[in-house]
Model the fold of this input.
Amino acid sequence: MISYDGPINILLVDDYPENLLAIEAVLSDLDYNLVKCLSGEEALRALLKDDFAVIVMDVQMPGMDGFETARMIKSREKTKEIPIIFVSATSKESQHLFTGYAVGAIDYMLKPFVPQIFRSKIEGFVGMYVSNKKLQQQKILLQQQTQELERMNKELMRTAYQLTKAEAIKSVISSTSMDTMITFDEGGIILTVNPSILPMFSYAEKEVIGRHIHELVPELCLAQPEGMTEQTAEGVSSGRLIEVMPLRKDGSRFHAEIKLGSTHVDDELIYACTVSDITERKKTERELLTAKEAAEIADRAKTDFLAMVSHEIRTPMNGILGMTNLLTETDLDEEQRDFTEIILKSGDSLLGVINDILDYAKIEAGKLELERIPFSLKSCLDESLDLFIAKARENSLEMLCIVDESLPEYVYGDVTKLRQILMNLVSNAVKFTPEGRIEVSARPGSGAFAGSARDMTVEFQVRDTGVGIPEEKLADLFQPFSQLDSSMTRKYGGTGLGLAICKNLVELMDGSIACVPNEPRGAVFTFTVRLERVEEKPGSGQADLPQPRAEASAEPHPRWEASQPFSFSAMLSDTFAEIGAAAMPEMETLLPDRYGGGGVLPFAPPLLDRLGRSRKQEAPRVLVAEDNEVNQKLILKLLDRFGIEADVAENGELAVEMALSRTYDLIFMDMKMPVMDGLEATRRIVGQSGSAYPAIIAMTANVLPGDRQKCLEAGMTDYISKPIRPDILETAITRHLLGEPAAQRQSTH
Done:
């Protein structure tokens, strides 16, 4: 039964408050909400807010009288059905009565009225109002039910259609599927199969109906779960794919995958099984596995070949560059000095080509890893440009470096790879710019990274006024071995790997690189990298950087001068010791303490003087394990230049014998030697020396990924690659001979 429990509002309109109070007294014991208004205007405002069951209104009121108010009420769609009762004390009864009915009133009463009659009329109109509300609710409910019935009818029709369609689709799929579909009961008796049973099992459909599923799929023993393999039993229970060997009619077997499902039909458990023939897939997998093994063998062969080529080229290069460096320090006439400088420049160019090829091999193998060390952005830019200042002056090029002041002074990142990118781009700019200017800039980038709030994007730009890049060449610019001019008569040399290496290094650092023409001439290379801000110490306002240790020497080392050359070969060989040789003085406080000492030392005052002071005039004992006669002479000459005499071992076995029979402060160990290689020799020296053994520095022509790690795992203390430069050698000697004595050095491996 529908009931109305909403409010019942009655509007009372009279300009005399005492009349309103009199009406309120008559209706006070009824559960009505009486809304009193003193004017027609106020009554109209009340009608805009609420719904009313009946309106009781005086005729004569100042401003808008009752008749005019009634006309306004009846003109609105929302209020025209509300019954209006006029209550008046006027003497013009007949005239007002006619007018009242004309404007839409439903009743007219004279003052004073009989309370019982007034009350009964109000109750009658309220009853009509409540009945009307109930009818409205019934209408709404009926509409809702009608809509729901219509919706259910449509849904029923749609479901019936879908069921019919699903049955048709199921029939088509079952009859056209290349997989065999089988249903069977709980006892394993086959109920239905699809036509694919014939090409897959060589059975006709009627031949297998009523047979046991075990005759087709022997692994599927539902009646005897203990007869199933663990994989099959797990597949039956979980519905996963199971690899089985089904049985054909002729007794042959084939590779297949089956998937089981089950459902209850009239309290009977019914299984459905789909059988997929995977014979071809298994064949492809075997072929892929064979190809993968062959590719791995080829990859290992390529790696071994690169290592061999690197060793075989760098070993004579070590002799060429080393001896040429020593030759430049002898008395030469002007022509001889020109010849030696040409040899050095040619050797450096050849070494750059070798390093480009090896770097690209590392990138191709995916074996490049990022370091995370704090460094100065400004110093990194300065060091990258220092190498090219002389060439720029020679070509009358203006070279500018601009660093945005909003960038932090120190950041965390891989300074070596960032410097390599900058040097490649600046080198190209110098090479392709015959006149004008080269501008290198750094500023905050717009990219954002999820994770640490300290992560930031830094955008670098190298802008030149050179020959520019043709529009049609931009698409292939960052492809390996791509050349702007690949003809035999080209003016500019190069391997075509520099920009490809830059692109891979930038992407490794979560950045991007692009090139656009520089108007009116030249090119602009822009790249971004992801770096991390160095946090400041709380309350100190200073960057949170590693602190330098107190040096063994009593005298402070002189600061690095900007005019000193940066080791390009050291940077490309990506070794800790060589990179340290080229570091700026600020980097002494930035590089981590990896080998028991502090930061990497810069070039120092005469090495022999400091060695003498640290050893109390006792000459350091050094052993060189090297099989190549040229390299033996080179390292001995370089050591002699520093005032150090050394013993020589021609192979690893002899090096072990000498290291265990004498006390050495430092051993330079080649990795590839006859009889016993350097790695095995190091393991034996470390293993048989107990907790104290000399510092062992790997000295090798191998610079492939993993070479340095192999050295450190064998027990070596440091790693330098050939060709060996005097400054690199001096850095290694300074670090390890000015550190702790051999007797006090503890194993860290």
